[in-house]
Design goal:
Two copies of one chain form a homodimer. Chain A is an alpha/beta fold. Chain A has a single domain, classed as Rossmann fold, CATH 3.40.50. In chain A, about 40% of the residues lie in helices and about 20% in strands. Chain A has twelve helices and 14 strands. In chain A, the strands form four sheets. In chain A, strands 5-2-1-9-10-13-14 form a seven-stranded parallel sheet, sandwiched between helices. Chain A has a three-stranded antiparallel sheet with strand order 7-6-8. Chain A has a two-stranded antiparallel sheet with strand order 3-4. In chain A, helix 1 links the parallel strand 1 and strand 2. The first copy, chain A, is globular and about 60 Å long. Chains A and B meet through helix 3 and helix 4 of A and helix 3 and helix 4 of B.
């Protein structure tokens, strides 16, 4: 058994849901014992800016500047730039806050100067006085593509933001995945981790792109630590976003059994909500049943602590 | 004599001072009879954005959105992005308003897509419902460089904004001028103009870079119309900015005689302020003495009208 305070923990996280649990974990763990592997497959370019929505959501959450109403963006941010774009006759469909723009401008500038996305992300985090390690799963291009019934193939943000995830998904894939190289830092962190937590992020949109990077599944399969997933569902429904809708469209079961099947071979434990206690259960995978809704900071820290204790006690 | 209402007028303009007279001229002339040739030698790149301060000042003034307190920037604009840059530990020395950013983002994006600066400028103007023609003197790179006593060679905005034009100027030049091609549209406008007005912009910083583009002096010298300059000085002093300081540092005389000498061979008339009536006068160049201070919209239109009438009456 590993003592929690000494454990090296890695979290795999997407956007809003993942960031909540990351916040809790970061409150309990010293920065040098905690690494977050972030999703970059929803990155995109708009008006020449390199935007990394999932990395930003995690970063803003850790920095304590995230907009509490949405979970993404910066609290108190304004939209003057967007309003002016509209005055020019543009139809901007992505919500770029004015303060948020500083992040995109710096990231884009530093990438152009030759820094990797990992280096840029660390520099941005340190700039906001966050000492945690947030590692993009890869520094190479990776892009979630969505084939829809209504509009054909859409880039992820077009599907997600422009069309508000209403189109019916026929197929999903991660462009660039075959060429993408797993970041060495990610490989090292996973290889030495005592605990790996798949955050309650969208399995098919946030965790799947991480698993699609060559070497990621093998690295996880060869883990020396324990890997647990936290279900993003409560009562068979997603707390936020399209996870439930899209998984149904793809014929995936919304249940502990469905999740355990989706992450087959990778899990030493599954954390589910009280409300899903009676759903078809995951055969052979230990389950922690608890309250997984994280609305307050206290709830985030409590859930993080409960997961670490559970894994530390031998699962 | 040319009837003013039929006259084709071209204004050579830099930033704030030039924009004021341009505003007055635009109120009196139909858009297809009025062309502004704009300065691009103070353009620069910041955080990957292509910024054209002089073009923007003229554009915002024509669109009626210029900040009346400064003459540049957009009225009511905010600085959220800049504040966030500071939160990241950056030291931004150029005042980028949030609404202003939309202009820079669009310009940069469209240039990257292969549009010329002329095409971009027209598209931005039309987006703001301005029908005037504002033509960059060239679509090629042109950059004012300033050799200072205190800091050696500075890019223009470093000298002008970062160091607030306090360093002593030893020498000025326009990088790229030898290779820059005079825009065909500018050449055509000047060739068919009945009246050419050198606006009360900084002679050495705003008008000189226009004259430095190969073919510009020859095109002006071969004019069929009349060319008049409006002195930017009142009582031997610049209304705003470094014109007086920098011209003294360069050994140029601040007087009608000094200006006529600086624009030698190009002028059919010079407009000066009442306060400079007794300064050394320009031999052989007709002079209009009037009130050249433009604080209100009415004053801008009145001065523009007076200049057009004076030229139209045979100078």
């Amino acid at each position: 058994m590993v003592l929690i305070t000494d454990a090296k923990v890695v979290a795999l996280a997407g956007g809003v849901g993942g960031a909540k649990l990351v916040y809790g974990l970061a409150k309990l763990l010293p920065p040098d014992h905690f690494t977050i592997v972030g999703n970059v497959a929803d990155d995109f370019e708009l008006y020449g800016l390199h935007i990394s929505p999932d990395l930003d959501t995690v970063m803003y959450t850790l920095a304590g500047v995230a907009n509490p109403a949405t979970g993404w963006g910066i609290k108190g941010d304004t939209r003057q730039m967007l309003e002016m774009l509209r005055a020019y006759g543009e139809d901007p469909w992505f919500g770029l806050g004015d303060r948020d723009l500083a992040t995109h401008l710096l990231r884009t500038e530093w990438l152009r100067q030759g820094m990797t996305l990992s280096e840029v992300t660390t520099r941005l985090l340190r700039g906001l006085d966050v000492q945690s390690w947030l590692l993009p799963v890869t520094d190479d291009p990776l892009a979630t593509m969505v084939e829809t019934v209504e509009y054909g193939v859409l880039g992820f943000q077009e599907y997600f933001v422009r069309h508000r995830w209403q189109p019916t998904v026929r197929r999903l894939w991660f462009e660039g995945a075959e060429q993408a190289r797993l970041s060495d830092a990610v490989r090292d962190a996973l290889g030495t981790a005592d605990v790996i937590v798949m955050c309650p992020s969208n399995p098919v949109l946030s965790i799947a792109p991480l698993l699609a990077v060559p070497g990621m599944r093998e690295t996880l399969a060869a883990r020396r630590g324990k890997c647990v997933a936290v279900s993003p569902f409560i009562g068979g429904k997603a707390v936020k976003g399209p996870a439930e809708k899209i998984m149904r469209e793809m014929g995936l079961e919304i249940s502990p059994r469905g999740l355990a099947g989706y992450y087959a071979g990778l899990l030493d434990g599954l954390v589910i909500d009280e409300a899903d206690r009676d759903q078809p259960s995951a055969d052979g995978v230990p389950v922690l049943v608890t309250n997984t809704l994280m609305q307050s900071s206290e709830e985030k820290v409590r859930l993080a602590g409960e997961i670490l204790s559970w894994v530390g006690s031998g699962t």
